[in-house]
Each structure stands twice: as C-alpha cells, then as structure tokens.
C-alpha cells in the first residue's frame, strides 16, 4: 500500500494519491468564485455529464454564490475499457430546450477531448445564449482535437485516475480525493 493510503477496503487497488481532498476542495471553491464572477448577474444553467461529473458538479454548484439551475446529461463512455472509441452516444438528454440560456458544461475529465468536442457540437446547435466549459481535470497529452475548456481545475499526467466521481469499472467514485489506480485494477483484474 502506497504511503498516505490507509489500509481500508476502499483504498485497496490504489497506487497513489494524485490530488488530496484539501487541494481539491480549495481549487473547486476557487473555480466557484471565478465562474460566479464571470457570470455576474446572469444565472447559468449547469449541465453535468454523468456519471463522472456528479461529485464535482455538487461541490462546484455550492461554491457558486448565485442562483443557478442544474441538469444532467449522460453519454456513453468507455465501459470497462480505458481507451476511447471516439464514438459518443447520448444516453440521457436534457429535459428542456436551452435556447437563450447561459450554459456551463461541467465535465469530470478531458482525455482525448472527443466527448467534449461532441457535446459542444450538439449543444451549440441548440442556440444557447452562451456555452462555456469547465473540466475538473485535463490530461497533459497530444490530441487530435483542441480540447478547449474555459476553466480547468488541474492539469494531470496521462495516467488513469479514479475518485471524486471518476471510476474504473464503476468503482471508486466515492473517494474524496483523486488517485492513480494500480495497473491491475485498470485491466479489471
Ligand atoms: P475523452 O477521451 O472523450 O474522455 O476526453 C472523456 C471521458 O472518458 C472517461 N475518462 C476517464 N475516466 N479515469 C476515469 O475514471 C480516467 O483517467 C479517464 N480518462 C477518461 C471519462 O468518463 C471522461 O468523461
Ligand atoms: Mg468512467
């Protein structure tokens, strides 16, 4: 067991903590302040991408000292594999039109950037008043698409991470920190 990880069942399978709870919370509060300042007296609609963004979305929304609304979309992800297929499918769409709304898309992580690229395209065609993006994490790697985000919580190395909403095969979403899993866990062993 890596240093800093107590031997409790939730932590088995983890290699090391990448971003601890205190650092995460401080950065999310800072993002909340910055984003609130940007919107001023415009009330944004936060659109979270399920399932990974649910924890970040909950903390970010509470860090924004302004009236806002929240909705979620669900898109297909990697399933149990860790390589992007480049194919994104909407599993759950928004309940209402977003025409004329100030939409803030809330993502957990930008890896290849393909998911975000697809979502931007879909939402932009619905004529929102504005569309901005915040991602908690962005992997530092070369990409075929630009992976533009207006706010990014942390740039991280190109490793598979879990916790704070992120999973491997559905597990570890409830970790209060972001960690790198042992290679065996990523392969589903
Ligand atoms: P792309 O490649 O389209 O991927 O930017 C975005 C989605 O892939 C998932 N993803 C991860 N999930 N740990 C995870 O738990 C990771 O390191 C990771 N990398 C990508 C995630 O669902 C994200 O929305
Ligand atoms: Mg996932």
TrEMBL record:
InterPro entries documented for this protein: HGPRT (IPR050408), Hxn_phspho_trans (IPR005904), PRTase-like (IPR029057), PRTase_dom (IPR000836)
Primary residence: cytoplasm
Keyword Mitochondrion in record: no
The keyword Cytoplasm is annotated on this UniProt entry: yes
GO biological process, one term: purine ribonucleoside salvage
NCBIfam families from the UniProt entry: HGPRTase
Pathway participation: Purine metabolism; IMP biosynthesis via salvage pathway; IMP from hypoxanthine: step 1/1
Lineage, uppermost ranks: Bacteria, Pseudomonadati, Thermomicrobiota, Thermomicrobia, Sphaerobacterales
Broad enzyme group: transferase
GO cellular component: cytosol
The enzyme's E.C. designation: 2.4.2.8
All copies of domain Phosphoribosyltransferase, residue ranges: 24-167
Catalytic reaction(s) noted: GMP + diphosphate = guanine + 5-phospho-alpha-D-ribose 1-diphosphate; IMP + diphosphate = hypoxanthine + 5-phospho-alpha-D-ribose 1-diphosphate
Record keywords, A-Z: Cytoplasm, Glycosyltransferase, Magnesium, Metal-binding, Nucleotide-binding, Purine salvage, Transferase
Cofactor: Mg(2+)
Family: Belongs to the purine/pyrimidine phosphoribosyltransferase family.
Top-rank lineage group of the source organism: Bacteria
Protein name: Hypoxanthine phosphoribosyltransferase
Gene Ontology MF term list: guanine phosphoribosyltransferase activity; hypoxanthine phosphoribosyltransferase activity; magnesium ion binding; nucleotide binding
Subcellular location: Cytoplasm
């Amino acid at each position: 067991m890596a240093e800093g990880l107590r031997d409790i069942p939730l932590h088995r399978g983890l290699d090391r903590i990448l971003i601890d709870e205190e650092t995460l919370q401080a950065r999310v509060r800072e993002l909340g302040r910055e984003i609130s300042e940007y919107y001023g007296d415009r009330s944004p609609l936060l659109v979270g991408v399920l399932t990974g963004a649910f924890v970040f979305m909950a903390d970010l929304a509470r860090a924004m000292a302004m009236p806002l609304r929240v909705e979620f979309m669900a898109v297909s992800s990697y399933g149990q594999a860790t390589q992007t297929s480049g194919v994104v499918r909407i599993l759950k769409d928004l309940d209402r039109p977003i025409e004329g709304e100030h939409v803030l898309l809330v993502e957990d992580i930008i890896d290849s950037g393909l998911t975000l690229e697809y979502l931007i395209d879909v939402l932009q065609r619905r004529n929102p008043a504005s569309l901005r993006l915040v991602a908690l994490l962005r992997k530092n790697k070369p990409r075929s698409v630009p992976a533009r985000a207006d706010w990014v919580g942390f740039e991280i190395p190109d490793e598979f991470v879990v916790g704070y909403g992120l999973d491997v095969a559905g597990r570890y979403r409830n970790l209060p920190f972001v960690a790198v899993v042992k290679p065996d866990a990523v392969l589903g062993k």
